[in-house]
Structures are given as C-alpha cells and as structure tokens.
Amino acid sequence: MSPVYSGFINFIRQRAGLLAWWLVFCILVLSLLPSASIPKLNFSEWLQIDKLGHISFYGSATFCFLLDLSNKNRSLKWNLLVYFGLFTMGLALEYFQSMAGHGRIFDLFDQMANTIGIILGGFGHQKLKKIFN
Known about the structure:
Elements: H1 3-14, H2 16-32, H3 43-71, H4 76-100, H5 108-132
C-alpha cells in the first residue's frame, strides 16, 4: 500500500467520529435552511441533486459512525443505534421543516433517500472495514 493511501486511510480512521458529527451538523444546517436560501433550479435538476445529497450525507454519516464504533470494538446494538438514530433524525427534520413555515414541506421521498443512504453507508462499512482496521 502506498504511503499516501495508507496515510489517508489512517487519517479517516482516526477522525471518523469527528467526521460523523460534522456531517450531522451539516445535515442539520442544510435541512433547516429556509427555502429562500436554496438555489433555484428546474424541478428535475433539483430533484436529482437533492436526493443525491440526502443519500450522500446520510450514507457518509452512517459509514463514519460505524467506522468509529468498530475502532472502539462496540457491539451490534451500537450499530443498530446508529441506524435508528440517523433514521429518526431524518424523520424529525422532515417534520420540523413542515412545521417551521419557511416554505419547506415534509417530503417522504427525502426520507426514502435518507434511508437508502443509511443502508448504503452500512453496506459500505461492511465491505470496507477490513481496509480501515
């Protein structure tokens, strides 16, 4: 393994928890922005970018949390807590968007994209954990 690649892997592994919480912070900020703060795109462009963002952020957060937990030799119940916690956070944020009155609505497709991201993050962790450990 090249020194650059090895250094990158070590950097991510050692900071996985910090990265996970940074991603959660980004999710919170982006999810609670008023609709006027979001760039205007045509519907099909926005739909693709928006759902890809949900999948990417939730998947990356899941991966980083699971990587941090595997570094600490945590049990399966901790992994389930990550899945449940991120799913519940996404659901709560969708609800808060509709309640805040900033032009945002509860979008079931956003929650579906969040869930897909969480699942992909879990699969990614299972496939790549040998590299990171």
